[in-house]
Amino acid sequence: MVYMSSEVGVVDIQPDVKIIQKGRLKAGRLLIVDTESGQLLDDESLKSKIATKHPYDVWLKEGQLFAQVTNPPIDPFRERIVMTLMCPIGPQKNILIPSRAQTHRLWLANPILSLKDMALLRSLGGNPPSQPEDVKITSTVLSWRSVILDATLSVHEGSEKVSLGSKLFHFLQDLCDKAENAVLHDSVDLLIISDRASSRDRLPVPILLAVGAVHQRLVRRELRMRVGIIAETGESK
């Protein structure tokens, strides 16, 4: 018999009952009851079984790019097991079918990219710049292709009678069309949505609106898992 509850003393157990094991299920730990085999699988044995099922260590060494930055966890003492700021981007394969291809992603220590990192990602598909000191590059990642989608709206384009809201709507439709075509026809791996071109004549579209519109379009077209999305913006605080 297995008892699990959020408080001690929920179940009255007779003194003559032999307790084989008792304890507290800590954050991020697993406890599995296999009703078919009658086994009780603890956290260590279960994770060890999963971790040794495939050569994950070999896949990780060969297939990933890590940005070497030193930002610490928010709470490195109590929450390291259950939370991380690491952010994987890029095409993602079916997580239900483990394979080497799943490791071909870019892992960032946090979601914020430096100017050197952005310069590298913008250049993918062409001649990459010299390697920045804070980024370790693997040859597989350099096979990726990125495309820059302008997220600025011309203030002079179109009829003066058309409202700004209508201009914004049609701009987002066009932005989504470009993103969809880039993934579907050009086999792009990274979409960089950028408001770098903003000026007196070009208004920056709210970056969350632009990224959200592209994300939802790709989800509806079942293309989202094939590409990563990066926001290059002066709007973030």
Question: What would the keywords be for this entry?
Answer:
25% helix, three-stranded mixed sheet, 15% strand, 237 residues
Q: From the 3D structure, determine the CATH topology of one domain.
A: TIM Barrel
What is the general shape? elongated
**Uncertain segments:** 127-140
Q: Give, in order, the helices and strands.
A: EEHHEEEHEEHEEHE
Question: What's the Cα radius of gyration?
Answer: 24 Å
Mean pLDDT figure = 79
Structural notes for this entry:
Pfam families: GATase_2 (PF00310), Glu_syn_central (PF04898). This is Dynein_C domain-containing protein. Helices cover 25% and strands 15% of the residues. Helix 4 packs across helix 5. The chain has a domain of 130 residues: Aldolase class I (TIM Barrel, Alpha-Beta Barrel), CATH 3.20.20. By secondary structure, it is an alpha/beta fold. It is elongated, with a radius of gyration of 24 Å. The strands form four sheets. The protein has a three-stranded mixed beta sheet with strand order 3-5-4, with no helix packed on it. The protein has a three-stranded parallel beta sheet with strand order 6-8-10, with helices on both faces.
